[in-house]
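Notes continue from the previous slide.

Worked example: a multi-chain complex. Inputs as given:
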Amino acid sequence: MKLKDIIETLSLRVICGEEHLENELTGGYCSDLLSDVMGNSQEGHVWVTIQVHKNIVAVAALKELSAILLVKGLMPPNETIKAAIEQGIPILQTNETAFEVAGKLYNLIQQS
Amino acid sequence: MKWFRADLHIHSVLSPCGDLDMGPVRIIEEAGRKKLDIIALTDHNSALNCEIMSEMGKKAGITVIFGVEVNTREEVHCLTFFENLESLKKFQQFLDSSLPHITNKPEKFGHQLVVNEKEEILEEIDKLLIVSLNRSIEEVEQKVHGLGGIFIPAHADRPVNGIFSQIGFIPETLQIDAIEISSSASLSQMLNQRPEIAKYQVISNSDAHFPQQIGKRVTEYFMESATFDEWQKTLRKEGDRKIRIV
């Protein structure tokens, strides 16, 4: 499954990284503690979080995640977007909560 | 110059998690017993007991530094310190405007009390103080430094509410004056796990919530006098000033 498939199915907004929407998704990870994400997320995961601090980009790049998905309509500050563009990490956004969107993502990825 | 003993992370009855015995009289008494030269009051997201603590410290010959333990949007706990009442009051306004209104349930979280020199209750704070501000760690750091204050991420070794657990690493753009490790942490172990902290001054305090915990961990500062100004110079490694965790 590609990033663009979940964007379309779940009507996600793309905040940055339009050129990376062909990224393959291998699964997802849901956490707001960056130390936990560093330790437990896997390459190709979409990372569901409320954390908007610019360090999320470095963590996503380090772990080679396919995208960061911000929930509850949270907007990242400019320095986070700037870092994401530099590092080539797509940032997506939904108005749903982490619980809601993670449930839908799980089903989509299982079915693919 | 000489060594001064300091415990710069202490909670009073204003912190919901602070014991009801943590009034200014008892804190000063315990600090005297533990032979501390300097203490700081660092309640969660509020400085409202600082002034009375400082006055009582003066009478007892103990320097009390004005402080607050701020909880940032990322839920990183950071110690912030101010030299005078003017900057402290400005910071209190910043806290008031940045703390979301979630009502405290004293039976669950504990009472949040502002007290006088007789430990009589002047006010009970309604807004829950332990929640995070709607300000990023950078915004808080810039505010503190704009007021001439000191900014130190607290208990960096802890698995929650420490800078490493919450945001993974220290952002290059964040200006920190030192880093605190918790009272049970070993500096050598911490340096092994996080070699990057070697470039910062590392301090440790008790994080006392109960009287007997005051002075459980102390950092000593080699400096001219027990003042905020001297402490700030010591954090900047000016002259022969130095620091040791004991």
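Summary box: The helical segments of chain A are 3-9, 34-40, 55-62, 78-87, 98-111. Residues 3-111 of chain A form a domain with the Udp-n-acetylmuramoylalanyl-d-glutamate--2,6- Diaminopimelate Ligase; Chain: A, domain 1 fold (CATH 3.40.1390.20).
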